[in-house]
Amino acid sequence: MQRAVLFVCLGNICRSPLAEAALRAEAVAAGIAITIDSAGTGNWHAGNPPDPRAQAEALRHGIDIAGYRARQVRTEDFRRFDWIYALDPQNLRDLHAVAPRRPLAKVGLLMDLVPGREGTAVIDPYYGTEDDFAATWDDVSEAARRIVGRLEASR
Q: Among all residues, which ones are annotated catalytic?
């Protein structure tokens, strides 16, 4: 059975598309089939591509995310995905608030997967600089490696 992972941030134009891209790259490199998507708890960017700075950061790593489109998290996501990872504690609280009574997905904080980073947020680079987008990439890439490691261990 193919596994499915959803990444969730606020607007789905910076952090969660980068997390989606990082996990796609890691999964391909490891030869793991997995469904990966991203969404936001807010809907104001729905239908828009990722922030140009996020696109530029992904391209620096050889990944084109220009075709990604923002969307808001939906109730059916809690049944469709095995894991839903929030990129910060506030979005985790928001996910728990909109989750159906008995979600099938395990909902958690992405950085809880990285030893020493438990309980912390992936930096939100939206109001920041290119360096902030690079730091976001570093965070989501490390988490993606942890996810792939767990999937490889469960093969």
A: 9, 15, 124
CATH of the domain at 95: 3.40.50.2300
Q: 153 φ, ψ to 5°? A: -65, -25
End-to-end CA distance of the chain: 11
For the chain, how many structural domains are there in total? Answer: 1
Tokens 């530029």 sit on residue:
56
Q: Helices (DSSP H) in 1-155: which residue ranges?
A: 15-30, 52-60, 77-80, 89-98, 130-153
- Compute how many other C-beta atoms are within 10 angstroms of the C-beta atom of residue 92: 22
pTM above 0.90, yes or no: yes
For residue 66, how far is the Cα from the chain centroid? 16
Q: Which residues pair with 107 in a beta bridge?
A: 84
CA 99/CA 29 separation, integer angstroms:
32
Residue 121 has what DSSP assignment? P
Domain that holds residue 135: 3-153
Q: At which residue do the structure tokens 């992904």 appear? A: 58
Task: Identify which of 83, 143, 70, 138 has the alpha carbon closest to the alpha carbon of residue 113.
Answer: 143
DSSP 55: H
Summarised one tens digit per residue, pLDDT across range 47-93 is 999 999 999 999 999 999 999 999 999 999 999 999 999 999 999 99
